[in-house]
């Protein structure tokens, strides 16, 4: 076993040592820490508290109120133990009195021997949640018996950090591990920010910030430390994005000719007029396409707002410019969505001389080779596909425009790969998952943003009903009424097949029950991501044309399914899904002449879960829902940073939009003043950016 890391170790080297060699950890605790993604001493040092408990000021007992967490200090007035028939062990009660009143400390499943820990007359301090049960009471409090200066009293008279935990690691253990990590490695943390910048902004140095964020003497110290660490993290990433944006602006792209004649020809292909928001977005996209600088634009819009119309307009406008023999590509996250896009484009282009190809992972080797050869020779104008488009063997003759659908399903590197399929193409990225303003500013500062904030005429809000178990049958009765009027019904399940570890109905189980018990008089079908692509397409076509009326499905239908006759959605075990995902799912209904009704069948076990689902019953505004989702779950869960390839922020928690704006503005000014970050005071920033983001953001040219 390697040397333990503790006081006296080389601080710079200690930061990158395996956490199992940290004093007090060992192999077993190291396994638990790994579940928190803590593998090195550095990881532990930057594992910031999620909150704090202020135990500095005991409260008078008479002033306590039920439901609050508080410290009390007094003397032990009485100790009682009694056995309980319905419980193992017994109930221990310790009465504590101060000058204002009396409070009981209570432990259930206690042992009689525990009573000896609480001698009558001894001073005691306790912390916990106050409740009222025949009198004021704290159940299972954290206690310290004896004089305040005793070593065992270190849990009081201070502010204690509260960390994200995992099984096998208690708060007390995590505090000890963090303290040891700070002793071992904090001195080796390099201050990336220039001293002059810190002085100008009144920011503490990084070592003091780390001490204060973990073990502050006052709330203001913790706040200042967290702000300083968050600012550095934001400044580094925003500077990386500013560098990327500056380099993109220096590149020469395609300048498309999109004039009034092209505009009229494209609009005639659509059987409806565009909304004002769509027209505004189209104007912004067209301005980018006309520019000699490569377009790099994010198109945001709520479910059903008509983003695809804008994307298709851009594709048609690119193909209408016949001077260059340009190619365009549309990349979708799933085969179902890619196939639907291909069908939509083929229908629009049936009278045009546009050569299209579909490229997905399900193509046979021979089909794939033939399509790749045609694309490389320039015999295909428009390619629609999945991530298969960015495989190494895909070569374009003259790729000039790329549209990426559902950007959050693709990682940063995946989006960069398709840009490398030739000279810098124009890139339009669209998302039907509204991104909270702070997330958009943090992750897409290198992009221009268009927002479609208007629904097409005739789209009415979907009525959403939260159903506890006792009302589940009511949802199916409502669905039956819609089916009898010739409409379609989705029933969504969180799993494909039965899982013995989870008490959830799967899609395959649900499908069998729907067709044999619930809706035996109506044709039912099953759709999930594990089905062969050809079978999925058959099922979708049957549902679209009415050969199938009830679809049991997984969340694979979250995007890309457009069936105007679908008017009801029933989501089983809705508490298992995120707000944004549920909002996406219900966007599959109410897309035609019939109003949509979404039933969330759920059995939430906490008030937070009840409130989270309740938001969906109050609003259909995807941007408001996205902001609430961010507040409740944090950016990692909402944005899926690990899956999407976006960086995780350890120190910034998105609760301070002003700090994010400040870091964005400072990053832009920094790159404008020193485009290559070559000044001596900026070298450390440049080195950190390259090591942290260089490859992922294609910034090797500043190395």
- Structure class: alpha/beta
How many individual β-strands?
Answer: 21
Largest sheet: 7 strands, parallel
* Spatial order of strands in the largest sheet: 11-12-10-13-14-9-15
Number of domains: 4
What is the architecture of the largest domain at the second tier of CATH? 3-Layer(aba) Sandwich
Briefly summarize what is shown.
The chain has 23 helices and 21 strands. It is α/β, with parallel strands linked by helices and 703 residues long.
Descriptive account of the structure:
The chain has about 700 residues and is α/β, with parallel strands linked by helices. The chain folds into 4 domains: about 1-50 and about 160-190, DNA polymerase, domain 1, CATH 1.10.150; about 55-155, OB fold (Dihydrolipoamide Acetyltransferase, E2P), CATH 2.40.50; about 260-450, P-loop containing nucleotide triphosphate hydrolases (Rossmann fold), CATH 3.40.50; about 465-620, 3-Layer(aba) Sandwich (Rossmann fold), CATH 3.40.50.300. It has 23 helices and 21 strands. Strands 11-12-10-13-14-9-15 form a 7-stranded parallel sheet, with helices on both faces. Strands 16-21-20-17-19-18 form a 6-stranded parallel sheet, sandwiched between helices. α6 crosses α7 and α8 packs across α10 (about 305-320). The two termini are about 40 Å apart.
């Amino acid at each position: 076993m390697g040397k333990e890391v503790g006081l006296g170790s080389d601080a710079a080297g200690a930061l990158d040592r395996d956490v199992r060699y940290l004093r007090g950890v060992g192999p077993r605790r190291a396994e638990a820490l790994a579940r928190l993604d803590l593998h090195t001493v550095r990881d532990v040092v930057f594992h910031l508290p999620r909150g704090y408990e202020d135990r500095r000021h005991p409260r008078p007992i008479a002033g306590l109120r039920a439901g609050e967490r508080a410290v009390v200090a007094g003397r032990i007035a009485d100790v009682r133990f009694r056995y309980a028939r319905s419980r193992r062990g017994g109930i221990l009660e310790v009465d504590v009195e101060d000058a204002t009143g009396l409070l009981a400390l209570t432990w259930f499943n206690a042992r009689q021997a525990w009573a000896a820990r609480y001698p009558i007359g001894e001073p005691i301090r306790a912390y916990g949640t106050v409740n009222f049960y025949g009198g004021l009471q704290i159940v299972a409090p954290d206690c310290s018996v004896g004089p305040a200066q005793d070593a065992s009293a270190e849990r009081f008279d201070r502010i204690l950090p509260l960390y994200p935990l995992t099984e096998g690691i208690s708060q007390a253990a995590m505090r000890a591990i963090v303290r040891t990590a700070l002793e071992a490695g904090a001195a080796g943390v390099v201050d990336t920010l220039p001293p002059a910048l810190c002085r100008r902004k009144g920011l503490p140095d990084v070592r003091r910030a780390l001490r204060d964020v973990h073990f502050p003497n006052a709330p203001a110290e913790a706040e200042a430390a967290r702000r300083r660490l968050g600012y550095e993290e934001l400044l580094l990433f925003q500077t990386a994005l500013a560098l990327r944006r500056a380099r993109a602006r220096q590149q020469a792209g395609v300048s498309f000719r999109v004039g009034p004649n092209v505009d009229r020809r494209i609009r005639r292909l659509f059987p409806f007029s565009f909304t004002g928001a769509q027209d505004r977005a189209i104007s912004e996209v067209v301005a980018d396409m006309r520019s000699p600088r490569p377009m790099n634009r994010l198109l945001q819009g709520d479910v059903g707002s008509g983003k695809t119309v804008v994307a298709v307009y851009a594709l048609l406008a690119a193909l209408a410019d016949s001077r260059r023999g340009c190619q365009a590509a549309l990349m979708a996250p799933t085969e179902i969505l890619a196939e639907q896009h291909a069908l939509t484009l083929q229908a629009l282009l049936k009278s045009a001389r546009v050569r299209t190809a579909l490229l997905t992972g399900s193509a046979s080797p021979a089909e794939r080779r033939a399509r790749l050869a045609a694309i490389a020779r320039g015999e295909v104008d428009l390619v629609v596909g999945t991530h298969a488009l960015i495989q190494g063997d895909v070569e374009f003759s003259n790729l000039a425009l790329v549209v990426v659908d559902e950007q959050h399903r693709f990682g940063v590197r995946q989006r960069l790969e398709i840009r490398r399929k030739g000279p810098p193409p124009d890139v339009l990225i669209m998302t039907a998952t509204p991104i909270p303003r702070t997330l958009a500013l943090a992750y897409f500062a290198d992009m221009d943003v268009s927002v479609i904030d208007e629904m097409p005429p005739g789209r009415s809000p979907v009525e959403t009903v939260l159903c506890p178990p006792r009302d589940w049958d009511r949802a199916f009765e409502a669905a039956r009424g819609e089916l009898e009027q010739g409409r379609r019904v989705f029933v969504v399940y969180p799993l494909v097949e039965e899982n013995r570890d989870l008490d959830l109905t799967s899609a395959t189980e649900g499908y069998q029950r729907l067709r044999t018990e619930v809706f035996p008089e109506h044709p039912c079908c099953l759709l999930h991501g594990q089905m062969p692509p050809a079978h999925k397409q058959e099922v979708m076509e049957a549902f679209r044309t009415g050969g199938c009326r009830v679809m049991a499905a997984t969340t694979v239908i979250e995007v890309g399914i457009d069936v105007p006759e679908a008017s009801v959605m029933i989501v089983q075990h809705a508490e298992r899904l995120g707000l944004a995902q549920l909002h996406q799912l219900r966007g599959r209904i109410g897309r035609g002449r019939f109003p949509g009704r979404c039933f969330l069948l759920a059995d939430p076990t906490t008030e937070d879960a009840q409130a989270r689902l309740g938001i969906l019953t109050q609003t259909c505004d995807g941007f408001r829902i996205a902001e609430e989702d961010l507040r409740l779950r944090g950016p990692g869960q909402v944005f899926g940073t690990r899956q999407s390839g976006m960086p995780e922020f350890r120190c910034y928690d998105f609760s301070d939009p002003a700090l994010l704006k400040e870091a964005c503005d400072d990053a832009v000014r920094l790159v404008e003043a020193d485009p290559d970050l070559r000044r001596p005071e900026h070298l450390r920033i440049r080195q950190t950016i390259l090591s942290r983001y260089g490859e992922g953001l294609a910034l090797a040219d500043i190395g």
